[in-house]
Design brief:
Elements (H helix, E strand, L loop, with lengths): L11 E2 L11 E2 L2 E2 L1 E2 L2 E4 L2 E4 L5 H17 L1 H4 L6 H17 L9 H4 L5
Parallel strand pairs: 1-4
Antiparallel strand pairs: 2-3, 5-6
Helix pairs in contact: 1-3
Organism: Heligmosomoides polygyrus
Protein name: Reverse transcriptase
């Protein structure tokens, strides 16, 4: 009567063992297996890699940049105000969760695409 109800159609699972070939069934319905999913706004990859998250952050930052480009590129607006807008709007989107990333060579040398 009370408790959690699971929507089997919307449920998927991620495993950290990429070689595992098993599956999960609930009430005879097999759940979809995924290699990446979003959790608390960050992309989690089954191989533990960060490049999916790094690319996601770069993409989100560019999207946010494009949403305020009219202000940031307006010559009539003072540079100090543009910098405040950038620091308040664009940079937090790019850096969300980055303080938890290990500083590996892969992450530090990632191309900004």
């Amino acid at each position: 009567m009370f408790g959690l109800k699971l929507n089997v159609k919307k449920t998927e699972y991620l495993t950290t063992d990429v070689n595992e070939s098993g599956s999960i069934k609930i009430d005879g319905t097999e759940l979809a297996r995924t290699s990446v999913f979003k959790y608390l706004g960050s992309a989690i990859a089954s191989d533990g890699g960060l490049m999916v998250e790094v690319n996601s952050r770069v993409s989100a930052a560019w999207s946010k940049w494009r949403s305020v480009i009219d202000v940031l590129c307006d010559r009539k607006i003072p540079k100090h105000l543009k910098l405040k807008i950038y620091r308040a709007v664009v940079r937090p989107v790019a850096m969300y969760g980055a303080e938890c990333w290990p500083a590996t060579k892969e992450v530090l040398t990632a191309p900004c695409s």
